[in-house]
Amino acid sequence: MRGKADGQKWAVWVRARLQDQLCQLGYFLYRNAGKVLFVAICVLAAISLGLRAVQFHTKVDQLWIQEGGRLENELRYIADTVGETPASTHQLVIQAPKHHGANILHTAALKEHLAVLRNATQVTVSLFDTSWTLKDLCYKPSIPMFENSMTEKIFDNIIPCAIITPLDCFWEGSKMLGAHVAYVPSHIWNEPLKWTSLNPTLMLEEMKKRFAQYSFSYKILEDYMKRAGITNGYLDKPCLDPRDPECPESAPNKHSLQVPDIGAELTGGCYGFAAKFMHWPEELLVGGAKHNKTGQLTRAAALQTVIQIMGEREFYDYYARVDTDKVKYTDWTQEKATQVLETWQREFTKQVKLQQNTTDSRPYNLFAFSTTSMNDILGKYSELSFVRIIVGSGLMFLYAGVVLIRWNDRVKSQSGIGIAGVMLVIASLAAGLGFCALLGIPFNATSTQIVPFLILGLGIHDMFLLTHTYAELSVYDLPRNQQTGVVLKRAGLSILLTGLCNVVSFFAAAIIPIPALRVFSLQAAVLLLFNLGAMLLIFPAMISLDLRRRRAGLYDIMCCVRANDSESQEACTQVHSRCKLASINNNESFAGEEETLTGFSSNDCYSFSPTQLVAKHYAKFVTRPFTKVIGVMLLAALLTASTWQALRLDDGLDLADLVPLRSDEHAFLSAQTKHFGFYNMFAITGRDFEYPNNQKLLLDYHESFMRIKNVIKNDDGGLPEFWLTIFRDWLRNLQESFDRDYKNNCLNAEGWFRNASDEGILAYKLLAQTGHVDNPIDKSLITQVRLVNSEGIINPRAFYNYLSAWATNDAFAYGASQANLRPQPRQWFYGDDEELKIPKSMPITYAQMPFYLHKLTETADITELITSVRQLCRKFEEKGLPNFPSGIPFIFWEQYMDLRSCLGIALLVALIASIIVVGILLLNAWAAILVGAVLAGVVLQLLGIMGLCGIKLSAVPAVLLVVSVGISVHFTVHICLSFVTCVGSRDRRVRLALEHMYAPVVHGALTTLLAVLMLAFSEFEFIVRYFFLVLVCLIGVGLVNGLFFFPILLSLIGPSAEVIPNEHPDRISTPTPPSSPIVRRSSSKPPAPPRRPHKIENARLHAEPSLTTITEEPNSWHSQQESCIIVQPEVKVETSTCGNQNCSGSDTSCSSRTSPVPPPSHITTKVTATLTAKVEVHTPLTIVGGVERSKKCRHSSSSSRRSSRCSTSVNTTESSGSSSEPDSDTNTNSKRK
């Protein structure tokens, strides 16, 4: 070849070395096929056992919180300090009309709301030999400590659970508390106390009269009720049904019997039994509200009730420190506390569903929801769906079996090897998942619902490429022990290229820091690595066994059945006769570039196939100038429209999409998002901060939330109070009592007198605190300091002493403040004894300020809120206050703050990595850049389709956008590799590349589509919408770009060929054939049967590095010139006539499939012949339908060489010295002497 062509020698040399290594690997696998398969089965089975170590993540915070980010650090701090997140302690119920747009502000709706909730709140569960009710689990306001334990138990029974409900605007709200009946001993109170008839103020007055002789501190109870705002209970509220016999006489509409105006009563929100600390905002109770000009409610679309339940840690701590019979005989642990809470919540939800099912005729729906419900759903759907896996695998088996079967040649059919390949992909998938489990990568819903189907489709793509190449070589006269090597030599590079690009893109997608999606990316990358290894190391061994089956003449699939002689002879004769006819026609009509390139005549010898369609029609269509112009215009328009749609793409992922479409949880989340947009949040302050000396900074921090527009303000337009202001007001009241007693001489610097008030005495004790542990009391401070100075700052020196007194003696206010201080303040109960020392609490390391948020129905609103709150927190962080926000908006929507930047980085990494991999393996920088440009175009078009379909950008489609880079490689790299390695003009190389790679690309896309189709049947809306739909669009966009736009680009600006002929544009000049060897024969021995030299030449050809390509690597040379080498020698030829067994040297020989027969006697005849040989050496031609057409149908003489091999063999010199199958045919005129 020296001097006949130029080009990129180094690229050809490097690829030749790589292909040679793949070829040697194929030889090894052929020789050791059985051993390789045995070891592979053992290894895959052993690794698959790792599935026993699977860990599932089903909790929302485990799946959705950014790993290693600010949010995860904040939540870890909360968990380490408090033990749980504040958002995990609510049971919610939403009521909405069945008919969209109906008004729910009717008494019937509230009555139904009451009926369902009363039944649901009476749920009881039995665990650990104990019955648990709502009263045991719910959050209740704290009560003051009494000296008499019996009194304390009575009031503990009286105080009900805190339930946020619109029913609290009416007397019927007391019925929600009706199950909580305080049974008082009969000698104290002769009837049970019920909130439906309880007037706390009158009860206290009655107790004073009835138990005047008992020593009881009524003052403590009076102060407690006064500070909490407990007055007349529910008796002054209107009744929904004034005709109800239990409706109290004090109800405003009891005597008028007028139904209350629901909208007017709900306007501004409702108040619980403790009005000062139980104000429920209107936005929390009523959804989809509409007001008139005066601000009064006129219409509403939904009502909401929130039952506050203790968190896991709080529930465990409460019963761990309280002496109660419930856990007295139980090894009480936090795990058991969690189990009790989750079991009760499940039963509550089940009861609400039961009530809803029994009231189908009513015009309202009620839906219950809790974090436990969502975790249960995610846990349930994280389980493997064996039905879908079986159906998906069955479709793969069916497709592979049908597409690869050959009905007219059951021995050379590939259905069995295709089914075996699908089984191998499934086995490698199982082993890959087992390996992920061994690595400690947790599983979640994406691991079980998406990964298996996606990897199944991508893995089978490579299997089809190998079988396609295997089919191409099936008609070559290659020794069978070399075919496996040649298959890997031709297809291995493409498989390695696409596999590495896929793995790189999935690893790049792991940059998106969402745990569920990072796990998805890592698992998919590991599985693709396993599949790559299986396709390069195990599947060729299967091909080697299939070659042995063919050699034995056994049927495909039914490998125990041997083809009979007549059947094999008939198949062979049909093929040869068709090829002979095609050869004759070709000799008559051979002319032009088109015939040379496509090689098809009107009487083609093979049936219809996708490759034939491309060769005859599509390849020519794509390379037409008109098609190129239209294609470029379409591509420009498509990219422009995609850019416009991508710029309009919104961020967002509704929580409702994370649960099954037709579930009650989905209905709840949809209604909650649509009608309420209500969330609670906490502003949390942390450690390394001097709270006593920086109270002004804390107050400013709280006041700054006034500027956050989504924060709900109180009735006065200001912010609700937080723990420090409530603490300060308590001290101010004590200071006022002290000043009053001091002025009235009820106490002095030395002590107090009997007429001093309890508040004055308590203030005296507080004022005497120095704040020093070694010298805790100093009475001189009583007249020198004040509890709270004129600027509203609590005395910093005794701050933590005061905190101990406040948290214990004003327990209701401390609990209502939701401060959740850590470490918890020390307990100190007030008494009128002479003891002055008050224990000092530990410095605060955790405190929180509660806020309610509303009007957060769109992702844009939530991200705006997060941005403004984060800016505020950063501002005070710079001032020295460690703080951060917490709540559902920050847990689920924090991802959108950095999502686009993370997506950009991940896409850039994936594209650059793919370009580098393609550049290294293609050894062509411009080709790699073109591939990268097309991949970027696919991503842009996919973004445009997402915008057109209304799919919002979140972490889920972001990962798929990154992954699309790797998946799209399948549609481009095969074409590009074939294009670069072809010889000729750009148009010719495009046509050759399409003919060669169209079929495997289409088969791969269809198998991937079949696998992804299983996702359409998932009950998860987000899987269907965000995975199935996006992946289907990706397959369609990839096919259009890979098979239409990309070939047009290659034909216009594609890279030059690696090998450029010097003399002819589309072929390398014909090499000079070597001289015929001189054969010396002894006359004393009969001549041996002829042996065709092509096997030796073939071995030599494939043992050396090839300079040809995957597309055009033939086993013979052909000439397109009309001139040829004419030789007219006179030779003596000895012929041996024999039976069918002499045909065994050919792949298409019939005798290779028949049983051996005894050789017949030989007849030796000496003749003198004049031989006229026309030798044609052609450039390599294209391969269509799995067979190189120049080898099947084109012959230069009127006789068919394939036909002659089935009848008689002439021992003449073959003229192609470097070919594996000579394509010159001999036209002999014999004269017998």
TrEMBL record:
GO terms for molecular function: hedgehog family protein binding; hedgehog receptor activity; smoothened binding. InterPro entries: HMGCR/SNAP/NPC1-like_SSD (IPR053958), SSD (IPR000731). Residues 1063-1105, 1137-1162, 1188-1233 are annotated as: Disordered. Keywords: Glycoprotein, Membrane, Transmembrane, Transmembrane helix. It is a multi-pass membrane protein. The chain crosses the membrane at residues 36-54, 386-405, 417-443, 449-471, 492-514, 520-543, 903-923, 930-953, 959-985, 997-1017, 1023-1046. SUPFAM superfamilies: Multidrug efflux transporter AcrB transmembrane domain. This is SSD domain-containing protein. It comes from Nasonia vitripennis (Parasitic wasp).
